[in-house]
Amino acid sequence: MNKEHGSLSINSENIFPIIKKWLYSDHDIFIRELISNGSDAITKLKKLELMGEATLPDDNKFRIDVIVNPEEKTLKFIDNGVGMTADEVKEYINQIAFSGATDFLNKYKDKANEDQIIGHFGLGFYSAFMVADKVTIDTLSWQEGAESVHWESEGGTEFTMTQGTRDTRGTEITLYLNEESYEFSNEYRAKEVINKYCSFMPVEIYFKNANAPEEFEESVETTDPEENAADDNIIDAEVKEDGTAVDKKVPKQPEPINNTTPLWMKHPNDCTEEEYKEFYRNVFHDYKEPLFWIHLNMDYPFNLKGILYFPKINTEYDSLEGTIKLYCNQVFIADNIKEVIPEFLMLLKGTIDCPDLPLNVSRSALQNDGFVKKISDYITKKVADKLSGMYKLEKESYENFWDDISPFIKFGCLKDDKFREKMKDFIIFKNLEGKYITLPEYVKASEKADTDETAEENAAQDKAEDTSSKEKSEEASDKKEDEEKHVIYYVTNEQQQSQYINMFKEEGIDALILTHNIDQPFITQLEQHERSYRFQRIDADITDSFKEDNDEEGLKAQHDKLSELFRKVLNNDKLEVKVMKLKNDKVSSMITLSEEGRRMQEMMKMYNMYGMNPDMFGNEQTLVLNANNKLVQYIFENTDSKNVPMICQQLYDLAMLSHKPLDGESMTKFIARSNEIMMLLAK
């Protein structure tokens, strides 16, 4: 066989169905593509004028018109940009994937850059055939002596091109919608799509319903008879003898439906607080004022602008998912593209515009590119810089915002190591007094209140834990034995754990308030990275600070007798019971749950591991009875009394209520038993 060399060919009949059906995921995107083409045509002419290649009249005003005709089921897109000659129509329209924008940049590469040029692939025009059976183009080039061109195609694979009748510079594209796409000839549906994709297009867009009656507005009254007579637009005007016109009506002047200069395109120094808030309300339709915002403005090494808002979230009713809109040259691409926006930033609301984004052919997603990672890292850094700067310079505001922004910051620390490193010194916690402190501040205050016995107990416990670890090397174990773990007490529910909170306050011991569901994984991460910290919920154990000097031998008889009694009454042979002398004799009973067991139980619930037995992970509940309490003493001395079983059950439920809510059956029994006890008191 002879060696052959040639070029691959594309059969339009084969490729066109792919473009129509599979290139774009959303059919409404054709409106974005055709308006973008019009914007590019105008941008080219602006550049030609700057280069001295084209001369425009003094009253020239660039615009794009979109006209719907519900009766004829058509949609028109009109621009007054460069237009096209017959040869350019053959190149840019008749050749699939030949980009007119790219060709323009190549032709004038020494004189023009690609700023504000949207198109790159030469496929946007063909999106029209997703919704139209027939498409026509009427165009007239900006070049002197150019002739207008009429082009039309049904189905997209064959076309007819003749001399046209258009007498003004620019291009008019008419779509004759297919039956499945009649919705786009509806005024409100078309406006909805334009608002979605083109709200901030850099060229003014005017919208018109061809079937709607003309609208009029009252004009300013004038007393000049000649001016009134010359004004052909005056409708139904009453003219007085002196020539004064009253109630003049003139055709209503159209207004653009887009904003060509979005706030993110301005320099931060030129934006006011009210402008930021107004922009937030208009774009996100959220009328709760944002807490604060970050204005991104970068030109090197890539061009990126945007505004990120920290919304005020009512976690009880509002979704924690935010919305970050991604734009390219002021054209909407998509919401929440994870390649550009770090996952933890999805809680925010904002807009990001990056003309350098490596978009795919449909301009609806990103191509994998190391450049995208740089953009993501930059955004993360700017957010961390804003938060750390606020902590240093506006600490009062930072504390006021903390309850709203802490879930976002903690989520960011869990998801992004670089963000965690930048923020670790600026994470604050609310304590029992309602003040905000850092972990080092908590530890420093706790050390002053710690007794020698507590320090020795913690050191002994840490040593036992370290020496029993088989996964650590001997060198690491020796080092860890010398370290002192700082126990950090915390509260997860201020109401349920109020008894423990009061005990802590009485003894002058502080604790942190950690009530959000993200706090548990967050403190676990803190313990992994900060080895000197050990978090313990205030109901996990009874520390020596709450006890009197306990004589274990002296309490052994009470412990054995009460343990047997409570296990029998509660029908729970595995119930762990401890008897100790607490300083507060008003406290009769308490429940403690080991920190490790409770965390494992919560993890099982989080991952729906309900088929596993929590006890296999050491999920131990301990009933603590206060030997100094008179009710406990009465039970010990009167175990044979007929009311003792009822009192035992009541003490257990009271202790459990300070730990967690009772289930339905237990609560029913508790209420009935409480009524019975009150009846006994009444007698």
Automatic annotation (TrEMBL):
SUPFAM superfamilies (alphabetical): ATPase domain of HSP90 chaperone/DNA topoisomerase II/histidine kinase (SSF55874), HSP90 C-terminal domain (SSF110942), Ribosomal protein S5 domain 2-like (SSF54211)
One example GO MF annotation: ATP hydrolysis activity
Region spans: Disordered: 447-481
InterPro entries in the record: HATPase_C_sf (IPR036890), HSP90_C (IPR037196), Hsp90_fam (IPR001404), Hsp90_N (IPR020575), Ribosomal_Su5_D2-typ_SF (IPR020568)
Coiled-coil blocks: none
Entry keyword annotation includes Zinc-finger: no
Stated name of the protein: Molecular chaperone HtpG
Native source organism of the sequence: Anaerocolumna aminovalerica
